[in-house]
Design a protein that fits this description.
- It is a single chain.
- This protein is mainly beta.
- It has a domain of 82 residues.
- Helix content is 4%, strand content 17%.
- The strands form ten sheets. It has a 17-stranded parallel sheet.
- It is flat and about 80 Å long.
Length: 705
Amino acid sequence: MSSNQISRLESDIFQDIHQLNFLFLDNNLIKNLDENLFDFLEDLLELNLSSNQIESLDKMVFKNLRKLKNLLLENNRLKIIETIFYNLESLEHLDIKTNQINAFNNDIFMTLKSLKRINIYNNQLTEINSETFKGTYNLEFLTVSSNKIQRIYSNFSRDYKNLISLELSWNNLSFIEPNIFQGLLKLKLLFLRGCNIKSIELNSLVNVQKLYLNHNSLSFFSQNLSLLTELYLNNNPLVNLSYPLITSQNSSLEYLDISKCKLSYIDFNVLRNLSNLKTLRMIENFMFLNNDTFIGFRSLRSVGIDSSDIRFLIKGSFFEQNQLIYISAKNIIDISQNGLSLIIPFVFQACTEIRLLNLSYNNLTEINSKSFYGMVKLTSLLMDSNQITRLDSNVFQDTPSLIHLRLNNNLIKNLDAGLFEYSTALIHLSLGSNQIECLDKMVFNNLKKLKNLFLNSNRLKILEPIFNNLESIELLDASSNQISIVQNDTFKSLKTIRKIYIYNSQIFEINSEIFKGAYNLESLSISASKIRKIYRNFSEDFRNLTILDLSRNNLSFVEPEFFNSFLKLKELYLTGCNIKTIDLSSLVNLNILSLTFNMISFFSQSLDSITHLYLNKNPLVNLTFPLITSENSSLELLDISECQLKYINFDVLRNLTNLKRLRIMENPIILSNDSFDGFISLKEVNLKKEDVQRFKSLFPNITFY
């Protein structure tokens, strides 16, 4: 019963559904719950009361829910929680986040021996001590972030021997007592973000693996945490880093973030001693990096150095030197989101082992020849979301291994005919969201291995035979352009093409010549265009087509022979086409049919294999005829909502023996009490709100909503 406007529930509403396991009442207007409301739901496993207006709960409201495992009360108006959980002996997960709770009665959780997770995020708690969660000995995950906690008492952790994750972020814990975490022997995850912490002692956390201390006031951090693998210290005023962060000899640290720490000096020997360090993030600091900065790191794989003050990659900078080889055993350079506006030729000449280069989200305007000189093993180059207007014709000459190239969301208008001449290994090319108006016939000539080509969201007006040599192409996306003409033979040589998307275009008509040659096409989308006519011979070459989307075109009349050759078609989408009549009897393998939002007043087809039929928003008015005429219908979902239906012969629907889901909402029909008698497989019905409650009591084995 989620997302209704329920404000009141009668106390006996659930008395006839004793076997209910899951009850969802979230996103309603409920303010109060009767103390006997759930008395008959002894088998209930999950109760969701989230996003209501509940201000208080009766002490007895959950008294009979001994099997309940999940209780969700988030996003209500609770201020004080009293002893309401005492009989919830099976409860494992309690979520009371985003309320107004400022205090708990002592012993409130005393009987919750099975509880493993508590989430109290975003409330008004000011302190916690050992009595707060007393009795929850098996607790594994505790979240108390975004409260107003100023103090945690030293005895807080004594009962939490099984706690794995503790989330205390965004509280005002400027001082934390040294022994506060002493009993948390199994703790692996500790979150203390944004707590205004100035100093902290964590040496007792012998098993902690991930530690989040970002956004605090720490000026010094040095701990003996031998099993720690991830450490987040970003946004702390460390200033100078000349001491060991991890004092144990055998550090397990793999990830370190010291970004935005106002660092003017780092003793890199301190970091080199972290022999397992793989990822280092140090963006937006003030120190100067030497040419040998990253030499000597044993395991370092990637470095985040995308600081806002680095605007140029120039020869002689630390980027260009041999230490880039040491940056990554995974062979990755990620300098995205940097503000880069220029790459000087030869800057990457020492990067002979790099496989992936990410330059996305910068301010690059042009890419010059020799920009990637030396990157002979580069396989992935990402340059999305820059301001690139020009690419030198031989810019990719030095990247013979390039497989994956992304140039989405730039300002490219033209591509030189020889731009990809040396990119013979290219498999994936993305040029979406640029300003390309036309393409040279030779531009893709050497891309014989290309499988995926994205030209979407450009300004193309005509598709010509420019794909002739793409003998491996499987996917072409030319959607959201201004294409009004697709020339004959455009796809003639594309024997391997599987998917073509040309939706959101200006195409007026299509015939068999347009897609001639694309014999193996499986999915075709030409929706949201201006198609008024499809010639009857259109389907002749599409014997392998399984998905066809022609939605949102003006196809008021579709010739009967149009679908004759679609022998393998499984999904057909004709939403919003102004169709009045249609013959689909030749589609013997069709599974999904969407005819939503058309002008159909009569529909009766012999479609044995169809499982999903969407006829909603059609003026059917009276349903007295079989929708599926075959004796052995496979139909499982039928949507006839918003069809102006005044009458339904329910025997017509009962004959659909596999029907599981029926949608008939927003129709003026008056339903009798026996409307849903005799349905063999029906499990779910969507109908008018005023009918829901009546049929729930009449047919408890069917879900009505």
